[in-house]
Amino acid sequence: MSHSIRGSMLISVIFMMLLMAVLMSAMVSLTNRSSRNLAYETMALRARLAADSVLENAIYQQMAPAQDTSIADIELDINGCSANAGVNKSMNINTETLYYIRATGSCGSNELNVVRTLEVEVIK
Fold this sequence. Notes:
Keywords: Membrane, Transmembrane, Transmembrane helix. This protein is of the alpha+beta class. The protein has one helix spanning about 5-60, and strands at about 75-80, 80-95, 95-110, 115-124. It has one domain (about 5-124). The protein has a four-stranded antiparallel beta sheet with strand order 1-2-3-4. The relative contact order is 0.15.
C-alpha cells in the first residue's frame, strides 16, 4: 500500500472514532434527561395522589350529616409527601350551602419539589 492510502485510512479511522464518541455522549445526555423526567413525573403523580386523598377526606367530613359549618383544615403525611385541605370559602344559596374545598399535595426534596393543587365545589 502506498503512503497516501494509509494516511487517508488513518484519517478515516480517526474521523469514525470521533463520530462514535459524539454519538455516545449524546446517548448519555439523552439517558440522563430521560431519567430526570421520569423522576419528575413520579413525584408529580405522588403529589397529585396525596392531594386527591386529602381532598376525598375533606369532602367526606364536610358532607357528614352532623357537619353544619366549614370543616377545620386537614393535614396529612402520606409516604413522604405532605398534603392539606380546607374550605376556602362558603356561600349560602337559598337553602343550600356551597363550599369551595382546596387540597394541596407536595412531594420531593430540596433538589426537586412538586406541588399539585385541586379544588372542588360541594353543595350541601
